[in-house]
Design brief:
single chain; 26 helices; 1% strand; elongated
């Protein structure tokens, strides 16, 4: 029984007249054959037997696309790329890094190596090399041997721009002597700016300063040296670096760069003052001279007669640090107003005449008086202080406008008296609170204005 089933299995799988498998064939083929219901239309053709079951990959060449080609015009590469662009593409391919593919014959490998050696050592191609560099690709620069070829390469890149200029400059730095490289930078300011930017961003401070000094940019070099010295974290190191700068610029020649020496001396004095007086506890070790001046103003107790022998005296400190009178007065005004020490404000702006020392002190301000009044108003100074500063203004019209802006009634009344605005004074008196100090002040101003019938302004000489 078992042998019969085995032989039937073998006969089933070894038969070549079997149809292709289909999920639609739900019935057993043996049963259908026995009943005689299989028609010739359901038998597979020889075409499918030879095509699908012998080779399950259909080649693209088996499709006949002649009809499609007959209906469409053939597209030429020249319709996509111009002759110049195609030439550049072909030149770039000749300079590409040659990676040998698998299965390359020795003859082809020899040709590729010969072409690479020739393009590297003998025949530099300027246009193709520039295009590769501008697109961020690697290109052999060793083929550019002569000084003229290197200059042409740099000039072409400078005309097009891009970060590739730095790579070419470093190549020139490596392959040229110092005189030739500096001569190229001197003749090409744009290349010099690229190289200085590279040195600054890479943190090469010594070469950056050396290049600045070599090309006569002493102000930038001194500023960079000063920044490097002040960037030191320790106070003792900053003092040493500043002293070294002072000695270096002093030995360079007397009067060559006096401004730089002045700045270095002031910074060194500032470091010594911070170390001796301990002024860095509030603003830190990297406090600016203006911040330290503000701190000196806070500690000063005698504004009428300052002790110029004391290093922390505001006037002495401002003189040592070459702080301008306007900066000194503005800093002192802000500090005294914030401390509400308004009695000291008049002393800050008092000056003794140099041509007449015995004369009484006079009010003197080094910046716009209107700015001082506006700042005092912002710091909520009392009206008496505002009136004191407004009384120093000579222009009555500007004084009236500013007094109205800062809401100083007495200064408004004084300005109207100067402008002889009697009607406006009467209108202002009616708006003031009854029996208030401002109302009494306005009434007295009206009386004094009415009593002055004859003044020098009313006297006119008739010829």
């Amino acid at each position: 029984m078992e042998s019969q089933f085995d032989s039937a299995d073998e006969n089933y799988w070894n038969r070549s007249s079997r149809a292709a498998f289909s999920f639609d064939d739900d019935d057993d083929p043996d049963d259908m054959g026995k009943s005689g219901t299989i028609s010739d239309q359901t038998k597979p053709s020889t075409k499918w037997d030879n095509g699908i079951f012998n080779d399950d990959t259909i080649s693209e060449a088996s499709f006949d696309n002649s009809a499609a080609l007959g209906t469409l015009n053939p597209l030429s590469i020249k319709a996509i790329l111009s002759d110049e662009a195609l030439k550049l593409v072909l030149q770039e391919q000749t300079l590409d890094d040659h990676v040998l593919a698998k299965g390359v014959t020795p003859e082809e490998e020899l040709k590729l190596l010969r072409r690479q050696i020739q393009s590297t050592l003998y025949s530099p191609n300027l246009e193709a090399t520039v295009q590769k560099l501008l697109h961020g690709k690697l290109a052999p620069l060793e083929m550019f041997k002569s000084l003229q070829e290197k200059q042409e390469l740099l000039d072409t890149l400078l005309a097009n721009g891009g970060d590739a200029v730095i790579g070419v400059l470093l190549f020139l730095k490596r392959t040229l002597n110092t005189a030739q490289f500096n001569g190229i930078l001197e003749q090409r300011p744009k290349a010099l700016e690229h190289y200085l930017s590279y040195l600054r961003q890479s943190g090469d401070v010594s070469n950056y300063i050396e290049m600045l000094q070599r090309f006569g940019r002493h102000q930038e070099a001194a500023l960079r040296q000063f920044q490097a010295a002040m960037a030191c974290s320790e106070l003792s190191t900053r003092k040493q670096q500043l002293q070294r700068l002072i000695d270096a610029y002093a030995s360079a020649g007397v009067g060559i760069i006096p401004l730089y020496e002045q700045i270095f001396h002031a910074a060194l004095k500032l470091q010594l003052l911070q170390e001796k007086e301990g002024l860095s506890h509030r603003f830190g070790e990297h406090a600016t001279p203006i911040e330290l001046l503000f701190l000196c103003c806070t500690q000063n107790k005698n504004w009428k007669d300052q002790d110029m022998l004391k290093l922390t005296s505001p006037q002495r400190f401002a003189a040592d640090q070459d702080i301008s009178p306007a900066q000194y007065e503005w800093t002192a005004l802000n500090e005294r107003a914030q401390a509400q020490a308004y009695a000291d404000l008049e002393c800050i702006f008092e000056r003794v005449s140099t041509w007449h020392p015995l004369k009484a002190r006079q009010f003197h301000i080094s910046f716009d008086l209107a700015l001082a009044v506006q700042r005092l108003f912002e710091l909520q100074a009392p009206a008496t202080v505002l009136q004191l500063f407004l009384s120093k203004m000579s222009n009555s019209s500007e004084k009236l406008a500013l007094a109205q802006r800062v809401k100083c009634i007495k200064a408004v009344i004084d300005a109207m008296v100067s402008l002889k605005q009697q009607q406006e004074l009467q209108q202002l008196r009616d708006t003031l609170p009854d029996r208030s100090e401002e109302q009494f002040y306005c009434e007295n101003a009206l009386k004094s204005l009415q009593s002055k019938r004859w003044t020098t302004d009313n006297i006119k000489l008739k010829l």
